[in-house]
Amino acid sequence: MFAVLKTGGKQYKVQSGDVLRVEKLAAAAGEKIQFNEILMVGSTIGAPLVAGAGVQAEVIDQIKGEKLIHYVKRRRKHSSQRKKGHRQQLTLLRITDILEAGADATGVKAAIGAGSAPKTAVEAAAPKKAAKAAAPAAGADDLTTITGVGPAAAKKLVEAGITTFAQLASVDVETFDAVKVKPEWVEQAKELAK
């Protein structure tokens, strides 16, 4: 039985026991991974993917591909030349199983590209912290509904302790120096606080 899987923007026709070089995946040598983007199993063609199908593989090693030379030469007088080399990061795999159905319940780690996986726990937690900071506190008004107040100004107002329209409406423009508050903002806040 064969399957057509998709990884790294490319499609591969594989059978059990095949050794395959694909773009670098976030997995260590000896680890078992599973590809869930299966385009075809045997003669079953999916639209766009075959539901419940999967291909399991064992990572043999993380390797580099052959060196590719990129050479640029401009002809005629005063021309320039440039030579650059590159070796692509690859993962060497051995296909172990092709599953026509039930791949969702196997519990094997899904194969993801190395560029899309967070490198550390700190990087993984960073988007969550940013989302919490961006979300307004309970009972707070959305200050960006006021004309002229964007996300940056709203953040400065929240840092200064102004979270509601009523608090902004009670601000004295001349004496409040934490944030440059415009008189139009105060007028709009008075209308919205009603």
Q: Sheet with the most strands? A: 5 strands, mixed
Q: What share of the residues lie within helices?
A: 10-25%
Number of helices: 4
Quaternary organisation of the protein chains:
single chain
Counting DSSP E segments of at least 2 residues, the number of strands comes to: 11
Count of individual domains:
2
Order of strands across the main sheet: 3-10-7-4-11
* C-alpha Rg (nearest Å): 28 Å
The average pLDDT score comes to: 83
Taking the alpha carbons of the first and last residues, their distance comes to 70 Å
What overall geometry do the principal axes of the alpha carbons give? elongated
Counting helices, strands and paired strands, the structural category is alpha+beta
Approximately how much beta-strand content do the residues carry? 25-35%
Task: Note the run of SSEs as H and E.
Answer: EEEEEEEEEEEHHHH
Which spans of ≥5 residues are poorly predicted at pLDDT below 50?
A: 129-134
Function: This protein binds to 23S rRNA in the presence of protein L20.
Protein name: Large ribosomal subunit protein bL21
Family: Belongs to the bacterial ribosomal protein bL21 family.
GO molecular function: nucleotide binding; rRNA binding; structural constituent of ribosome
Can you describe what's shown?
Strand 1 (2-7) and strand 2 form a beta hairpin. The strands form three sheets. Strands 3-10-7-4-11 form a five-stranded mixed β-sheet, with no helix packed on it. Strands 2-1-5-6 form a four-stranded antiparallel β-sheet, with no helix packed on it. The chain has helices at 121-134, 151-159, 165-169, 183-193; strands at residues 2-7, 10-15, 19-23, 32-35, 38-41, 44-45, 54-64, 68-73, 81-86, 89-99, 109-110. The chain is built from four helices and eleven strands, in the order βββββββββββαααα. The N and C termini lie far apart (70 Å). It folds into two domains: 2-117, no CATH class; 133-193, DNA polymerase, domain 1. The chain has 194 residues and is α+β, with helices and mostly antiparallel strands. Helix content is 20%, strand content 32%.
